[in-house]
Design a protein that fits this description.
Order of helices and strands: EHEHEHEHEHEEEEHEHHEEH
Strand order of the largest sheet: 2-1-3-4-5
Number of helices: 9
Radius of gyration: 20 Å
Length: about 240
């Protein structure tokens, strides 16, 4: 059963949406703690998020952008904000559909089904700047090329992706890779980090991992290698 997370502060509308989705055969979970919306959404592991933009505490634009950085999940914005600039801004930040209230039930369910079909089979894909990572097989995709990372390389990249733009400490990487922060030779992390950087370079993704002296590592955006661009010809983006 597909799970839909509803982020709506109007209690009446929230309950109505939950009933609509449940009657249509979906599992519906409602987010009501709006100060903790993002961690709750990530924990919910929903197949689709229905998101209002006008929320107490933190606006929907910020939520949309941050969730999209950390999880490959379709977001359907359902809001009373009917200005074109709001719609365009939401789409720029990663929203996949934009509907205004009041919304016809049949239209809402049709857009929901369409989004779920579009994302079918992509649940395991994490999105980076110019690449995708399958967090089950640790296959890295960029343009029309791919490479299968080792388990340790994949775990490092996944951890950095889930903390995109943030510094990840060596201790946290130790724990993700070996389940402990004690008695780990730092050289073991360096070896795997070097291999990951080499794998990224093979796909023209050089300098995507920054070393933050004394703190750890951070995933950064970057330009494609010129040599890769020249050799790739007319390859289409993934």
């Amino acid at each position: 059963m597909k799970r839909i997370a509803i982020v709506e502060d109007d209690e009446f509308l929230r309950d109505e949406l939950r009933d609509i989705f449940q009657k249509a055969g979906y599992e519906a979970v409602c987010i009501t703690q709006f100060q903790e919306t993002i961690p709750l959404l990530l924990k919910a592991c929903a197949n689709l998020i229905v998101l209002d933009l006008n929320l107490p505490g933190r606006n929907g634009f910020e939520i949309c952008q941050e969730v999209k950085r950390k999880q490959n999940v379709p977001i359907l914005v359902l809001t009373s904000a009917d200005r074109l600039k709001d719609e365009l801004h939401a789409l720029e930040l990663g929203a996949d559909e934009y509907l205004t209230k009041p919304c016809n039930t049949a239209r809402l369910l049709a857009r929901t089904e369409n989004l779920l079909k579009r994302f079918e089979g992509r649940e395991n894909l994490l999105s980076g700047d110019g690449f995708l990572l399958d967090d089950q097989t640790y296959t890295l995709y960029a343009d029309s090329q791919s490479v299968v990372l080792s388990e340790k390389e994949g775990q490092i990249l996944k951890t950095l992706l889930l903390h995109s733009g943030e510094v990840v400490s060596k201790e946290e990487l130790f724990f993700q890779l070996w389940g402990t922060t004690q008695y780990i030779d730092e050289n073991a992390l360096q070896v795997n980090m070097t291999r990951l950087r080499r794998s990224l370079k093979e796909l023209g993704l050089s300098e995507r991992i920054e070393t933050v002296r004394g703190k750890g590592y951070r995933l950064a955006g970057g330009k494609k290698d010129e040599s890769m661009e020249k050799s790739s010809g007319n390859l289409s983006g993934i």
